[in-house]
Write a structure and sequence with these properties.
The protein has 6 helices and 20 strands. By secondary structure, it is an alpha+beta fold. The strands form 4 sheets. It has a 9-stranded mixed beta sheet with strand order 3-4-6-5-7-11-9-10-12, with helices on both faces. Strands 8, 13, 15, 18 and 20 form a 5-stranded antiparallel beta sheet that branches. Helix 1 packs across helix 6 and helix 4 crosses helix 6 (213-229). It binds zinc ion (ZN). Zinc ion binds at residues 53-54, 57, 141, 144.
Length: 319
Amino acid sequence: MNAPSTLTIAGLRTEPGEKRTGFLPVAGTALELPLTLVNGSRSGATLLVTAGIHGGEYPCIEAAIRLAATLEAAELAGRVIVLPLVSPSSFRARQAFFVPEDGKNLNRQFPGSTTGTVSDRIAHAVVTEVAAHADAWIDLHGGDIPEALVPLLGLAEGAAPDVFARGLAMAEVFGIEHLVVPGHLSGTTLAAAADVGIPALLAEAGQLGRFDETDTDLLYQGCLRVATHLGIVPGEPPPVCELIRYRDWPWVRAGQDGLWYPEVEVGAHVEEGQVIGTLRDVFGATLEHSRAPATGIVLLLWSALAVNRGEPLFGIGIR
Ligand SMILES: [Zn+2]
């Protein structure tokens, strides 16, 4: 095995056995992304953990902060790089889904560019300056402020078979049983990681703008288990969880602006054609019934009364 070596990102230099915090400047913007490097005293794999790509997904942000704060460099074999708040302006603005400066969904802009707007530039900095050092990547999310969500994992179907297999092994130890493997992931961290051959796992827990300890701990412990599985954190190999695998989770979107009245709970099993909720106008008249496109589990459910055309009402995990 190689000798442990220095790790330097954005001018932040860590010797083996050292942990440092700092900021990653995003070129062409005023943004600086908080960054922690934990460089183990022994050599091993490098795990990247990102969170806060969406500003109102609080458990994932806190889980990443907790991970960065609690890891001890002297105990690690390998490195952990943590970016707990990839979109600081979304967080400060409590802006669900979109980056305030450009109105884009940051998790559709990867791998980004140096010539686009703020979202493109953040994505580019994360991929080229941080992910380039990583052997594995966990991107933490949750339901954003108007969304109820069942904790779930995601993998990129398009990854090379050996890369997919390593990502699946990470999913099996994370501690969340629902795994979505959708075929269409353009612009996401998972797609960007697949393109450069890094096994990557999407892990989502939390919902409805709540800062919830159970969901925070689920994500925090999951990251520790993956780091243990990769040999970075010392300990027994974590137990393997039997996954419930979904080949897709199609989202049904509002056909018009209205008021949304869901008729099922998130996590419910629903049959194809079943009414999931009703969109009404401000006088109570029905605008449309929204039906399940397939039999499956309601993994995502819009839970704000106000909904606008094009926003996702629900997502059904289909086997
Ligand atoms: Zn998200």
